[in-house]
Amino acid sequence: MESHQELLVAHITDLYEKISRLEDLSPSNHVNTLFTKLVLTCLSPTDIDVTRLSERVLEMRCRLIKLCGEAEGILEGHFSNLIGSHANPLDHTSIFPYYSNYLKLTHLEFSMLKKHCTILPNRVAFIGSGPLPLTSIILATKYLMTTSFYNYDIDPYANVKAFQLVSSDPDLSKRMFFHTADIMNVSSGLKEYEVIFLAALVGMDKEEKIRVIRHLAEHMAPGAFLLLRSAHGARAFLYPVIDPCYDLQGFEVLSVFHPTDEVINSVIIARKQLNPILSWNQELDSTTLPSKCSEIQCFNPINHGNIMEELTIDEQLL
């Protein structure tokens, strides 16, 4: 008899095969149904460790993440156009089907940040903001009402769509800025931000994600905060995974949270170390690991922002 994990992988593989045969990932009843089934499948509670799966399954996972990223970009572009067609676009952001998830995720991220960043930041950067920068919009309108937001995306058309959403708003049009750039080509400018958010789909594979994180570690201001979106368990079939023990050289990991509700992304908050980082070519040893690698603080938003007792990495799933 097949185990639960084997059945789960088989179901995800079947959905991947159906999605990969789609000629168009634009929103439609059929496309929406397939991706909804995939998300619901990946939300099922399981302790599956994707790093221990077969090479064949890992290759399928990489292809699936890229398909999900492509579909997510198309979906956000579609709804950015739809929302932007209104006279006051920001009054209609809730028509995005995953808006409530963004509200919960952004509340979680702000609550985690607030625990460690005692002074509200003046300048925040969001890397990979896309055509529908809901995180920046929600933060700017609900939590950081005086902060300036600098949104980076490599796609100029995404930035045009995003700018159209805030350009008519008298407040956000003065606090929300959009830069078309590959973040790997941005260096000295990164030191201007007290907080940087890294979108889940910046770095679609492990190697690219690590390169981006190392670039940030090299150029962010010492003591600045980095918020990263990762994935845990079966949700790792939808998004890349960041290992807080090995992938965040140059940062002190402060808190990690793995949601168990409909919010997909895990959240990691880290702080740029004050001391100069070692060369990336230097062999990794215990001195280069994040200082809280063995004891990550696990944040629980149900307790209204209270930090729970420190847990080991293997005990973090709530």
TrEMBL record:
Provide a GO biological process annotation. Answer: nicotianamine biosynthetic process
GO-annotated molecular function: nicotianamine synthase activity
Question: Which catalysed reactions does the entry list for this protein?
Answer: 3 S-adenosyl-L-methionine = nicotianamine + 3 S-methyl-5'-thioadenosine + 3 H(+)
Keyword terms? S-adenosyl-L-methionine, Transferase
Which top-level group of life is the source organism from? Answer: Eukaryota
The protein's matches in PROSITE patterns, at most eight in alphabetical order, are given as: NAS
Q: Which PANTHER family match?
A: NICOTIANAMINE SYNTHASE, NICOTIANAMINE SYNTHASE 3
Q: What family does the Swiss-Prot or TrEMBL record give for this protein?
A: Belongs to the nicotianamine synthase (NAS)-like family.
Protein name per its UniProtKB record: Nicotianamine synthase
Q: Which organism is it from?
A: Durio zibethinus (Durian)
Q: Which gene encodes it?
A: LOC111307514
